[in-house]
Amino acid sequence: MKNLTTAMRDGDLWPKERMMLQVHNRVAKEKTGKEILTEAEIHALGEGWRPSRNEDAREYNRYLEGANLMGTAEIDAQTTYLGATNSLLRAGRIIDMAWAKDGEHVLDFCKRFNKEEIESEEDPLDLVLKNSGLELERVIHRYAFESLSEDMKKDVLALYPDAGTERQYLDHEETLAEAFNGKRKLTTEAKHKLADLIVASLYNKHASLFRKLKSDSEFSEEYFFSGYYGELPALEILSKWAFYNHQIPQKAEDLLRHLPEDKEYASDSEEVSDLFDAIKKELTPRLTSYAEKHKKDIGEMLKETLLKWLDEGLFTKDFTPIWNSNGKETCNGVATKLPHKEVFKDWLKAKRKAEQTIFGLIDTGELKIEDRVETIKRFRNEEDAFTRPLKLITGESLYSLSGDYSFAADYKKQADDFAGLGGLIVFLRERGFLKQYAVLLKFLELFTRLSKIYEIDLTYKLTPWLAAFKSDLEMLNGEIMMLEEKLHQASYEKHGAAFLIEILVENMLIDLKQVEPDMGGAERYFTEFENNFGSEF
After folding, report:
1. Taking Cα atoms as reference points, which of 306, 287, 286 lies closest to residue 298?
2. Distance of CA 376 to CAs 75, 383, 482, 505, Å?
3. What is the rounded distance in angstroms from the CA atom of residue 477 to the CA atom of residue 350?
4. Continuous H helices in 368-503
5. Which pLDDT value is given to residue 379?
6. Which residues pair with 232 in a beta bridge?
7. Section 39-64 average pLDDT
8. Which value, to the nearest 10 degrees, does the dihedral of the CA atoms of residues 354, 357, 362, 363 take?
9. What is the pLDDT of residue 384?
10. Alpha helices in 234-331 (DSSP H)
11. Contact yes or no for 7/13 (Cβ under 8 A)
12. Beta bridge partners of 371
């Protein structure tokens, strides 16, 4: 566009440019509160201008009419936005009502949203079945445990109190047994493979996310040293690294500074727990600093530690795996009736039998498995979400499975409970706010086209409206996820299911990316602007 002062002095402005300047002035005033034109300049551009040709007058009037129509379209767009926001707010109140219920009452509330009541073509139960299932390895583990005699269950629980529901301990013990393969000494290949597996179990793939969230917990560290690998405490690996590399604290105050002052302990175990935590807090930064100073990878350092320790007796003299243990005592203070190795043999037999049953049903097509990913969206940006790969037995195959299988029976009861959540989500999806959002997207397209004609961004109001709506919808989706967690608890309290359903609720949420722009109330404006501007629009 030409220099305004010179152009007005020379009378060298096209009719379109005269109107564009006035639109730019209006935009500046609305965005900053200040105009870029004086009253005299505005008058000279419009009312004070006397076109010498009819063609100039017609062109000016065309862009003036477009600017006036744009103001009306903006009002309709705002009305659409306010309607969408109001409808979304009412939807949120339904979630609030559900959240206010406790126990079975929340299940009963959600069951009101069945297919007949919400009058939807989409079956809420189908939505749940497509986005849920049972984790394959958990089913095998639990099915094997359920098949054990009561005495054997007690022995397994003596080894690890959570072994009935948590498979990690026994899986680690099985890995150790496979590594040794019945021999007293590991092969070089088995030693390296085992060291890699143990280091991988310590690795925290979400460390960068916790650091981004400015968390000062151990989860912000690349490796954390809680838990066990079989009988081996992870903290012992860190301590062994410190011993090998002369990083053991030499002064009492090195550990005392991590302990709470003047704390009265209710038990020895509580005091020991705090001491272990102090060791971890002292040694973890030393590990990181050592790696940085010597330009080494922490994982490689830990592997070197494990390889050296394996040569010196790890899993042969220290922390003997249960496959090779004749003992009956446990660190939990409850002895097993059978020697550890006999308990482990019986466990493996039960697990192999469970695998035979489950994989047999898969081979016949009665059960189907899928690789899915659970995305836990508890943060603002999608990239900040936790992800967890899952190998699921599909909900559809479990729900239709015939025969007396406890895992299928547990799944069906829970799926029926969650059908209410599916119905609630379907009901919300079909509310007016999504239809109005679709019209808003069309208005955005309208003002994007007009921005090119008037050579200035005219979406500056619509963009924040859409952003605010998206933010409000994210809050609604967050409330749906919290409700799903509450339903999990209520369903468990009702049925006491041994096989817990996996719900991929993030795939059931209201997704604005799936909403296509819809003409709705914007149609008349597209028609009028096309008539006014022709191919330029």
Report:
1. 287
2. 38, 11, 11, 9
3. 42
4. 395-400, 406-429, 432-454, 462-495
5. 45
6. 229
7. 90
8. 130
9. 60
10. 234-244, 252-256, 268-293, 298-312
11. yes
12. 391
**Residue 2 amino acid letter:** K
Pick the closest to residue 83 from 455, 518, 454, 432 (CA basis): 432
Average pLDDT over residues 380-391: 70
**335-353 tens-digit pLDDT:** 999 999 999 999 999 999 9
- CA-CA distance, 463 to 468, in Å (whole number)? 9
Mean pLDDT on 369-376: 89
The rounded distance, in Å, linking the Cα atoms of 253 and 276 is 15
Query: How far apart are alpha carbons 281 and 217 in whole angstroms?
Result: 10
CB 195 within 8 A of CB 307: yes
One-letter amino acid at 186 equals L
Tokens of 517: 């722009």
Q: How far is CA 270 from CA 41, 105, 275, in A?
A: 80, 38, 9
Structure-token pair, residue 50: 């006397």
Among 486, 505, 470, which Cα is nearest to 385's? 505
Please give the single-letter amino acid code of residue 249. P
Q: What is the 8-class DSSP label of residue 514?
A: G
pTM for the model stands at 0.85
